[in-house]
Amino acid sequence: MNSNLYNVNTGNYFEVNWIADMESSPRFMNTRPSVSYDGTIYTVGVDEALHSISADGVVQWSLNMQSSSGHILNPPTLSWTPDPDPMVGKSSVYVQTDGGYIHHIHANMSIIWSFPCPTPVQANNSNILVMLDGIIMICNSGSGNDEVVKVSDNGVLLWTYPLIGTMSTLMISDGQDNGTIYFCTSNYLNAVHYNGTAYWQIPLN
Question: Residue 125's pLDDT band (boundaries 50, 70, 90)?
């Protein structure tokens, strides 16, 4: 079976713009791709590396963190730093590994910071939310209970919100600025303010 990445025109007619051959280059089929505002594609391959692909299908770089940080748990999460000149804006990539870290990676492949997350959670219940003043993620305290963690743009811990039980869904937010975060645990549907305080909690059983 062929292993390719396709770029397809989704306008009034179907047209394949380009095909990246995964058999002769790093294979990018381990997670769904994430696309930045400038058209750059970021994805994780079966080789456990994070790959950056240009809008025209050319591999720009590959970063393998398996030996130092472990397996990447989820699709790359992107943020965009705007600039008065829209062509100068910069994208950043966030990934969480089962080695116990959240990595903030620049679009040029350099690691800006790494934040320790003592015990990673299951991949299907793990995601990263990008807020205006930092990111929100899920860690496990090691005691069997998960916790919501917010980290600043500089990689500094802002707050933690301990959960009763473990996370059973991905998180969503109703806005990047002063938004409320929603998620389910094994016992509750939760709503948490952007500042880490409880809004409400509804029992699920």
Answer: low
